[in-house]
């Protein structure tokens, strides 16, 4: 299969599918990348996003949560315990929801831009 038939990176990110064929599952479990695509056989062991998704989640989510916390504080002036209960309940699920698509996007971009170096 050629690169032209590969799905765009954003589609790989949203579907968490193979960056070459767009059909095989990219993950085994929550965040563990499969060793091979079950459909096209692409070796995914070399395509590792490392800490990139975590850094992106920290930067993006922290900006959103801090802005929301300021807005809640200045708009409603709740007691401190409300902040202590509210923001972990909001932050943890959002961080988990953002991590998987961001990791898939980075794996897809890595496949797209480094495939010639890896002998794919």
TrEMBL record:
Short name of any one Pfam family annotated for the protein: DUF983
Highest taxon of the lineage: Bacteria
The entry's keywords: Membrane, Transmembrane, Transmembrane helix
Transmembrane regions listed in the UniProt entry: 54-74, 80-99
InterPro entries: DUF983
Annotated protein name in UniProt: DUF983 domain-containing protein
Organism taxonomic ancestry: Bacteria, Pseudomonadati, Pseudomonadota, Alphaproteobacteria, Acetobacterales
């Amino acid at each position: 299969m050629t690169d032209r038939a590969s799905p765009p990176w954003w589609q790989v990110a949203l579907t968490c599918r193979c960056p070459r064929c767009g059909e095989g599952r990219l993950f085994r479990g929550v965040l563990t990348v499969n060793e091979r695509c079950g459909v096209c056989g692409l070796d995914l062991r070399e395509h590792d996003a490392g800490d990139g998704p975590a850094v992106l989640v920290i930067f993006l989510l922290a900006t959103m949560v801090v802005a929301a916390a300021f807005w809640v504080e200045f708009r409603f002036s709740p007691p401190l315990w409300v902040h202590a209960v509210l923001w972990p309940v909001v932050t943890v699920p959002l961080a988990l929801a953002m991590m998987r698509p961001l990791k898939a996007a980075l794996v897809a971009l890595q496949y797209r831009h480094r495939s010639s170096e890896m002998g794919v």
